[in-house]
TrEMBL record:
Organism: [Ruminococcus] lactaris ATCC 29176
Name used for this protein in its record: Bacterial sensory transduction regulator
Pfam family, one: YbjN
């Protein structure tokens, strides 16, 4: 079912000329990205679908690389961002990369439109938060 949902979302994105790629052996993951943003040049994301196709998990690729010596400095900022942006969660992964993730329930009748909106929300939030993150790291 995840494969079917991914293909339905892919068909919607294709019809809307939204660049993306189906990945995975079962083509159940979508990779996409956006460029030309106000504060960041380009952001890439993955959309993962659960087995039943009822949920999507969106995760960015590396959003910001956090130097090891600055991790403690950035945690309060990440906590504040997580409080301010209810749709997304900012997380530092094991490679010291700040990523942004989001989970949502999908309606099969509107899953393409929903996923496109979630992509735009994720990218917009990342773009809006970027100056705050950079200021915290380098100020």
């Amino acid at each position: 079912m995840a494969n079917m949902t991914a293909k339905m979302v892919s068909a919607y994105l294709t019809a809307d000329d939204f660049q993306h790629t189906l990945l995975g052996e079962d083509e159940d993951v979508i990779e996409t990205g956006m460029g030309g943003l106000d504060n960041i040049d380009h952001l890439e994301l993955y959309l993962f679908f659960d087995e039943d196709g009822n949920y999507v998990h969106i995760r960015t690729k590396e959003y910001v690389k956090i130097p090891e010596n600055l991790k403690e400095k950035i945690y309060p900022v990440i906590n504040e961002l997580n409080l301010n942006f209810r749709w997304c969660t900012f997380v530092i992964n094991t490679d010291n990369e700040l990523i942004v993730k989001m989970d949502a329930i999908l309606d099969m009748d509107t899953c393409g439109e929903e996923c496109k909106e979630l992509i735009y929300r994720t990218v917009g939030i990342c773009d809006e938060a970027y100056p705050t993150i950079m200021k915290a790291l380098w100020a």
